[in-house]
Amino acid sequence: MGAAAGFRSSLTLVRKACGACRECDVRHQALCAAMADDDLHRLEGIMSPTALQPNQTLLRQGDPCRKVYSLTSGMLRLFTDLPDGRRQITGFLLPGDYLGLVDDHVHSQSAEAVVASQLCSFPIRQIELLMGEFPSLRDRLHRMTRAALRQAHDSQLMLGRLAPLEKLAGFLLMLDARANRQPRGGRALQLAMSRTDIADHLGLTIETVSRCFTRLKMQGLIRLPDAHLVEILHEDRLADIAGIGIQPEQLRSTAC
């Protein structure tokens, strides 16, 4: 194959790839939202796709930080191993979220798939070089990092509540705000994680979590079409129970 033919073949592959990126469900939520369509090939040139099966590990606590990950579909759970062998789930990643730039040299927590998930991975060094070339990419990463820190702060406040019902109400509102990233349109919130995962995150027993779901349902604040779906019927009353002192619209303003 001649040089010109090889160049045309490579250009065709780039165009096809960029077309796929433009059609990605999280194109305007994830890291790539900072890049214009004509520049997407620069980001995709350093990207490697990663597919995970349910409960498959992406990285372990203590692993060296070498890549940045952007979740395009599915859900990841983040957790820390405790000295007594238990684990504390510190959070969940949703499509559009990223992982890998907060820690310095090693990862401070583990990450594994809750359900089948797809990610884009980027070498940190090459991302840093692109950030120098594209200030919009640097600014996007900084905004996403600030949003992640706000979410961590909100989670700390939620976990500091004494009443289990307060914790669950706050968890549902925060997850709903992150999942929808816009005012609700009557859609049910998908809970891909198990009740055990929710319990491990909130520091409760699975029996307590189940009772709290039942109580919120009996009070007419939520509907439970099935174990992995919840429809929030009264956000303002749920916010009162959570004791967050703000309206649900303000929660959405913290979602990147």
Please describe the topology of this protein.
Layout: H1 3-22, H2 40-44, E1 48-52, E2 57-59, E3 67-73, E4 76-81, E5 87-93, E6 98-99, E7 110-113, E8 117-123, H3 124-133, H4 135-159, H5 164-180, E9 189-190, H6 195-202, H7 206-218, E10 222-226, E11 229-232, H8 235-242, H9 248-252
Antiparallel strand pairs: 1-8, 2-7, 3-6, 3-8, 4-5, 4-7, 9-11, 10-11
Helix pairs in contact: 3-4, 4-5, 5-7, 5-8, 6-7
Pfam family, one: cNMP_binding
Domain HTH crp-type: 162-236
Keywords: DNA-binding, Transcription, Transcription regulation
Name of the CATH first level of the largest domain: Mainly Beta
Q: What order do the helices and strands follow?
A: HHEEEEEEEEHHHEHHEEHH
Q: For this structure, what is the CATH homologous superfamily of the largest domain?
A: Jelly Rolls
Helix amount: 40-55%
The number of E-state strands comes to 11
CATH topology of the largest domain: Jelly Rolls
Looking at the overall shape, the CATH architecture of the largest domain is Sandwich
Alpha-carbon distance between the two ends: 46 Å
Low-confidence stretches: 1-19, 245-256
Domain HTH crp-type: 162-236
Protein name: Crp/Fnr family transcriptional regulator
InterPro entries: cNMP-bd_dom, cNMP-bd_dom_sf, Env_Response_Regulators, HTH_CRP, RmlC-like_jellyroll, WH-like_DNA-bd_sf, WH_DNA-bd_sf
Organism: Labrys okinawensis
Can you offer a commentary on this structure?
The chain starts with a helix and ends with a helix. The radius of gyration is 20 Å and the shape is globular. It contains nine helices and eleven strands. The model is unreliable at 1-19 and 245-256 (pLDDT under 50). The chain folds into two domains: 24-152, Jelly Rolls (Sandwich); 162-252, Arc Repressor Mutant, subunit A, CATH 1.10.10.10. Helix 5 (164-180) packs across helix 7 (206-218). It is an alpha+beta fold and 256 residues long. Keywords: DNA-binding, Transcription, Transcription regulation.
